[in-house]
Design brief:
This protein has 301 residues and is an all-alpha fold. It contains 13 helices and no strands. The protein has one domain: MetI-like fold (Orthogonal Bundle). The protein is elongated.
Length: 301
């Protein structure tokens, strides 16, 4: 039988790879023991699959944006799984296509916040001193403004579009990510492996990316899942107010806004997008809590 260690250049490399795989497997086993986290992962994966498969489930031109007044306000059934809205459009079709918009804009917004805020937070935490003070005071100014108010101000200035929506929500979350990344970088800045990297002449950018941030990914990943949920909720709120995704494009918030006038007699119109928002936020929060418990080194034993 072939010795698996021969695939590696030396025994140290073999044991390093084995330990790395073992740690990942141990984390996976701990995650699998968390039933609520698995429930959150299952619900979120189901929503993602529905969003990806939306073109296979319905036609965008015929079911999502085409007006069919003759079939308006049809109750669930009768050829329409969740009924039709006030314009005769299929609610299920709009729901799954709306999931695509909410997920893409939500994840993109958090990516913008993580890129900008993470970069500023890493620089602030790694260098400290006057650089830390200047960056954090600027972030404090933005933290004084509520997320939705800051997003509203940006959208009102630059106009309503998907790109502006991503940028506005991303910038509103930037101060929070900068503080999160700064705190985790501060915690490892004085570690021995950072000093060892400095002693062999590694550049600061290399140390931040390949040593400081890599060893802080646990808390960052957890916060990303939680802030994706917050971003989706913010998108829905802005669309409900008429400052997010504009009709006829489907988005859960504008579906709630257009259906609120009919919720007394046709409650299914608002129940569908409302439950979609609820289950998406719930799944991401359950998943984030599960990841936190899995990646927390204090809970290993």
């Amino acid at each position: 039988m072939e010795n698996p260690a021969k695939k590696y250049t030396n025994k140290k490399e073999f044991y390093r790879q084995f330990k790395k795989k073992s740690n990942a497997y141990e984390l996976w086993l701990r995650f699998m023991k968390n039933k609520t986290a698995l429930l959150g992962l299952f619900i979120f994966c189901a929503i993602v699959l529905l969003a990806i498969g939306a073109p296979l489930l319905a036609s965008y031109e015929n079911d999502v944006i085409r007006l069919d007044v003759a079939n308006r306000l049809q109750s669930p059934g009768n050829g329409h799984l969740l009924g039709t809205d006030e314009m005769g459009r299929d609610i299920f079709a709009r729901l799954v296509f709306g999931a695509r918009i909410s997920l893409v804009v939500g994840i993109s917004s958090v990516a913008v916040a993580l890129l900008i805020g993470g970069t500023l937070g890493a620089i602030s935490g790694f260098y400290g001193g006057i650089i830390d003070s200047v960056i954090m005071r600027i972030m404090d100014v933005f933290l004084c403004l509520p997320d939705v108010l800051l997003a509203l101000a940006i959208i009102a200035t630059f106009g309503v579009s998907k790109v502006n929506l991503v940028i506005s929500i991303g910038l509103s979350f930037t101060p929070k990510f900068s503080r999160i990344v700064r705190s985790v970088v501060l915690g490892v800045r004085g570690s021995e492996y950072i000093e060892a990297a400095r002693s062999i002449g590694a550049k600061d950018g290399h140390i931040i990316l390949h040593h400081a941030l890599v060893n802080c990914m646990g808390p960052i990943i957890v916060q990303v899942t939680l802030y994706v949920a917050s971003a989706i909720l913010t998108i829905s709120g802005l669309s409900f107010l008429g400052l997010g995704i504009q009709a006829p494009a489907p988005e859960w918030g504008n579906m709630l806004a257009s259906g609120r006038a009919f919720m007394r007699d046709e409650a299914y119109i608002v129940m569908a997008p409302g439950l979609a928002i609820f289950f998406t936020i719930l799944s991401l929060n359950l998943l984030g809590d599960g990841l936190r418990d899995t990646l927390d080194p204090r809970l290993k034993h």
